[in-house]
Design a protein that fits this description.
About 45% of the residues lie in helices and about 15% in strands. The chain is an alpha/beta fold. The protein has a single domain, classed as NAD(P)-binding Rossmann-like Domain (Rossmann fold, 3-Layer(aba) Sandwich). α3 runs parallel beside α4 and α4 runs parallel beside α5.
């Protein structure tokens, strides 16, 4: 019998790669995101490659009512969730704090922190009932240090780091694993979103070196969620070979 994984932000990037990777490794999937047409495309791709089941939930993690209503609507056979991947997240804007766009700040806080909390609040009780489960929170190297113009984004990812540590403690007696995976520069839609659709600026971010790719992180997620029952990877930092952390990288 397949395990069930619930993935937020499955429409692109790390979330999409994780869905495809887990589907190739005997997981049934609940895929979620804001863009229904992309979720439907992903469902078709998964079903064309395997016999594993897929269930779509279309919602915005920033909207608490949407999150709660969607998860409450899950049929009984889809409620035995063993793996939650809190992947939905973003960076918007790249400004000094004194000229920062408050709408950008709120979007990052609402997605990266509150969205993660809303989903976790609804899924974790289902895991507690079964005394098993694994929550994987996608953080960032930006949650391990701060850098110029990163202010609020770094703050949200520091929050993910702290929340993950707190979750691990809270879930310990329920035998629920919690893992924080903290990637460095991954070539996805990340920079395109940060620069608000300016492709020229976004492309420059990854020039001159080989960054991580979405499937690199998906492979790491597969690794941590398939460890033996007695093993929990609490925290993982992954960077490209040419990148030491959020600040230092070299051209190839």
């Amino acid at each position: 019998m397949n395990r069930i994984a619930f993935i937020t932000g499955a429409t692109s990037g790390i979330g999409r790669a994780t869905a495809l990777t887990l589907s190739e490794n005997n997981f049934d999937l609940i895929i979620t995101g804001r863009r229904l047409e992309l979720l439907e495309d992903l469902e078709k791709e998964i079903k064309s490659k395997s016999k594993n089941k897929v269930y779509i939930l279309n919602f915005d993690v920033r909207n608490k009512e949407e999150v709660f209503t969607a998860i409450d609507s899950l049929p009984k056979e889809w409620r035995d969730i063993e793996v939650l991947v809190n992947n939905a997240g973003l960076a918007v804007g790249l400004n000094h704090i004194n000229v920062g766009d408050i709408d950008d700040w709120e979007r990052m806080i609402d997605t990266n922190i509150k969205g993660l909390l809303y989903v976790s609040r609804k899924i974790s009780p289902l895991m507690v009932e079964k005394n098993r489960g694994h929550i994987v929170n996608i953080g960032s190297t930006a949650g391990k240090e701060a850098y110029e113009n990163g202010n609020v984004y770094c703050g949200t990812k520091h929050a993910v780091d702290a929340i993950s540590k707190g979750m691990r403690i809270d879930m310990l007696k329920h035998k629920i694993k919690v893992t924080a995976i903290n990637p460095g520069m991954v070539e996805t839609e990340f920079s395109l979103v940060r620069f608000k659709g300016d492709k020229e600026k976004a492309d420059k971010v990854y020039k001159g070196f080989t960054p991580l790719y979405a499937y690199d992180i998906a492979d790491a997620i597969l690794y941590v969620v398939t460890r033996p029952e007695h093993v929990c990877i609490n925290d993982m930092i992954i960077t490209a070979t040419s990148q030491a952390n959020s600040i230092y990288k070299v051209s190839e």
